[in-house]
Design goal:
alpha+beta; single chain; binds 2-acetamido-2-deoxy-beta-D-glucopyranose; 5-stranded antiparallel β-sheet; 253 residues; Jelly Rolls
């Protein structure tokens, strides 16, 4: 490269020489040195520029590194925040789940307490067709007895839970017989009346609604006896019946 510059310079200088003496060997060397110094100066400038560029590149790299580190730190911070957020969210969900479970249990308990137990019975067929005064009318055939509160051997219903109860009675009487009755609880007469027809055999119904406490007893009582003969009439066919019945149901606790 230098050689070609030198040759080019020599050539230019040769062409510019009008007088052979001014194109002496010293003249070329002089010119050559001059050029070389200039090139060297340029080289130094170039070195300096390269060094500057180098240092700029280093600075930029440092800055990039710093930026990268900052970014890394920010990412780490964000990650930690997300971790905290997840922990908080999980614990919140856990709390809500527990609250909901508690609520469910409480609701179930309330519903359970509100629910009316299945207490209902019906019995038919009187044991004694001519009861005497004060006698308990026993209906001896159980039709159904959920809660087992009615005793078909005694004719007495024993209250299993505090509540409102409805009792119904149907009695069928031979003609010209009277039945003075009372639906009683623990000897208190709640509903009382008399059924009678001089000519026909008829079935009659009676009912009593009571608020009762656990352990109280309810039955159908004969308040007056009849002089003679069967009071109650029982008849069962495939087409119709004369049934004497006693039923009770817990309406509400
Ligand atoms: C109905 O019964 C009464 C007494 O209970 C009696 O005096 C009367 O004769 C009876 N009537 C009939 C038609 O049997
Ligand atoms: C039933 O009622 C009685 C009298 O009102 C009361 O003392 C008792 O606590 C009640 N029992 C229940 C289980 O509610």
């Amino acid at each position: 490269m230098l050689c070609s510059i030198v040759l080019a310079l020599c050539f230019i200088s040769l062409c510019q020489c009008e007088e052979p003496k001014s194109c002496s060997q010293f003249y070329y060397v002089d010119k050559l040195l001059e050029k070389m110094i200039r090139i060297e100066l340029k080289g130094e400038t170039l070195d300096k520029e390269i060094a500057d560029t180098n240092s700029n590149v280093h600075l930029t790299l440092d800055e990039l590194k710093r930026e990268r580190d900052n970014f890394k730190n920010e990412i780490m911070e964000f990650k930690n925040l997300m971790k905290d957020f997840k922990i908080n969210t999980d614990s919140f969900i856990g709390t809500m789940e527990n609250k909901f479970l508690g609520f469910k249990t409480e609701t179930r308990e309330i519903i359970k307490n509100m629910a009316t137990p299945n207490v209902v019975f019906k019995a038919r067929t009187v044991k004694d067709k001519s009861p005497s005064k004060g006698e308990t009318i026993i209906f001896q055939d159980i039709m159904f007895n959920y809660g087992k509160a009615y005793d078909e051997t005694t004719g007495v219903f024993t209250v299993p839970v505090n509540g409102t109860y409805l009792f119904t009675v149907q009695v069928c009487l031979n003609n010209n017989k009277s039945f003075y009755y009372g639906i009683v609880s623990d000897y208190d007469v709640h509903t009382s009346g008399v059924f009678h027809d001089s000519t026909a055999t008829i079935c009659y119904t009676a009912d009593a609604t009571m608020r009762l406490d656990v352990g109280q007893k309810v039955w159908l009582k004969c308040l007056y006896g009849s002089p003679s003969g069967d009071v109650f009439y029982e008849y069962t066919t495939s087409t119709f019946n004369y049934w004497n019945t006693f039923s009770g149901v817990l309406v509400h606790v």
